[in-house]
C-alpha cells in the first residue's frame, strides 16, 4: 500500500535527517516505528504526509509511493484526499474553534458527503467526553481531551491510511490504553491501515504486524514483533542503556540489519 524506497530527507538542503531508508506498509497492515528521540521518525511521517516544506525540508533522494503512485512530490491536501491522514505529534488542533468545529474541519476534504453526521456520532461514541465538550473552545481542553480531538479530527477525514505520531505522549496510563484500544479497533474491525510512532514499545509491539527500529535516520533493525520483542539487545537498544553505560544499536555486538532476529 505504501512503499518508501531508499528515501533521503534533508532540511535546509544541507541537514541530512533521514539516510536512505526503505519501508513497506501492506494494505490493512499495522506497522510501528520505534527509536529514541531525534532519530528521524517524525520526519519520515511528515515526508509521507507532504508536510516537510513547512520546516524547509524535502525528499532529496528516493521515492515514496502509495498504491504505486509517487506522492513525495504532491501537496499535502492532495495526499489527504487520497486517504492518507496524519495525527501529528503535539495534537496541533485549532485552539480558537470549538471541539465540534475542529472535528468538522477534518471532514472538509470529503466535500458534500451526507454520511459525515453519522461519522461524527461514531467519534462521539469513541470519545464521549468530546460530545460533552462539543461547544467548548478547544484551547481549554485537557491534554488527554486534545489528543482524543486530534484523533477524532483525523477520523472525520475518513482515512484509508492513518498515521499516528506519538499519540500517547504525556497521557495518563488509562488514557493511553484507551487510545491504543481504539487504534486496534480501527485496524481490525474497520480495516484501516495504520503507521504508528509510539514511545511505549511493549504496547506498540502487541498491536503491530511489523516493526522498524530507527536510529539517527537509519533503520537498524526490522522484523515481526514476536521475533524481536524478547531479545535482550532490542530492549537495551530502546532503553539506550547497557548496565551503566549508554550505547547505540550499532555498538551492540552481532546486530544485523534486515534480520528478523539475532543472537547475543
Provide key terms for this protein:
disordered C terminus, single chain, 264 residues, 4-stranded antiparallel sheet
Short description, anyone?
The protein has 264 residues and is α/β, with parallel strands linked by helices.
Question: Your description of this structure?
Answer:
This protein is an alpha/beta fold and 264 residues long. The protein has helices at residues 41-49, 76-81, 99-106, 116-126, 128-132, 143-156, 173-188, 201-207, 225-228, 232-239, and strands spanning 2-11, 15-25, 30-34, 57-66, 69-70, 84-87, 161-165, 193-197, 210-215, 218-223, 241-242, 245-246. It has 10 helices and 12 strands. A hairpin with a 2-residue loop joins strand 4 and strand 5 (69-70). Helix 3 runs parallel beside helix 6 (143-156). The longest helix is centred in the C-terminal third of the chain and has 16 residues, at 173-188. It is globular. The two termini are 34 Å apart.
List the helices and strands and how they pair.
Layout: E1 2-11, E2 15-25, E3 30-34, H1 41-49, E4 57-66, E5 69-70, H2 76-81, E6 84-87, H3 99-106, H4 116-126, H5 128-132, H6 143-156, E7 161-165, H7 173-188, E8 193-197, H8 201-207, E9 210-215, E10 218-223, H9 225-228, H10 232-239, E11 241-242, E12 245-246
Parallel strand pairs: 3-8, 3-9, 6-7, 7-8
Antiparallel strand pairs: 1-2, 1-4, 4-5, 9-10, 11-12
Helix pairs in contact: 3-6
Amino acid at each position: 500500500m505504501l512503499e518508501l524506497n531508499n528515501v533521503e530527507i534533508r532540511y535546509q538542503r544541507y541537514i541530512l535527517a533521514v539516510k536512505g531508508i526503505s519501508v513497506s506498509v501492506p494494505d490493512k497492515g499495522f506497522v510501528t516505528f520505534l527509536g529514541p528521540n531525534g532519530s528521524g521518525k517524525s520526519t519520515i511521517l511528515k515526508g509521507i504526509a507532504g508536510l516537510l516544506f513547512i520546516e524547509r525540508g524535502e525528499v532529496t533522494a528516493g521515492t515514496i509511493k502509495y498504491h504505486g503512485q509517487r506522492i513525495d512530490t504532491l501537496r499535502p491536501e492532495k495526499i489527504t484526499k487520497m486517504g492518507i491522514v496524519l495525527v501529528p505529534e503535539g495534537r496541533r488542533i485549532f485552539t480558537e474553534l470549538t471541539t465540534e468545529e475542529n472535528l468538522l474541519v477534518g471532514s472538509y476534504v470529503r466535500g458534500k458527503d451526507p454520511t459525515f453526521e453519522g461519522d461524527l456520532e461514531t467519534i462521539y461514541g469513541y470519545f464521549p467526553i468530546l460530545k460533552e465538550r462539543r461547544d467548548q473552545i478547544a484551547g481549554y481542553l485537557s491534554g488527554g481531551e486534545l489528543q482524543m480531538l486530534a484523533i477524532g479530527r483525523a477520523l472525520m477525514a475518513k482515512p484509508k491510511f492513518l498515521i499516528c505520531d506519538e499519540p500517547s505522549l504525556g497521557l495518563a496510563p488509562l488514557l493511553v490504553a484507551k487510545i491504543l484500544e481504539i487504534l486496534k479497533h480501527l485496524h481490525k474491525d474497520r480495516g484501516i491501515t495504520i503507521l504508528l510512532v509510539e514511545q511505549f514499545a511493549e504496547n506498540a509491539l502487541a498491536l503491530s504486524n511489523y516493526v522498524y527500529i530507527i536510529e539517527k535516520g537509519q533503520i537498524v533493525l526490522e522484523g515481526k514483533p514476536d521475533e524481536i520483542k524478547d531479545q535482550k539487545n532490542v530492549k537495551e537498544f530502546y532503553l539506550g542503556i547497557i548496565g551503566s553505560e549508554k550505547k547505540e544499536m550499532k555498538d551492540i555486538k552481532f546486530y544485523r540489519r534486515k534480520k528478523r532476529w539475532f543472537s547475543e
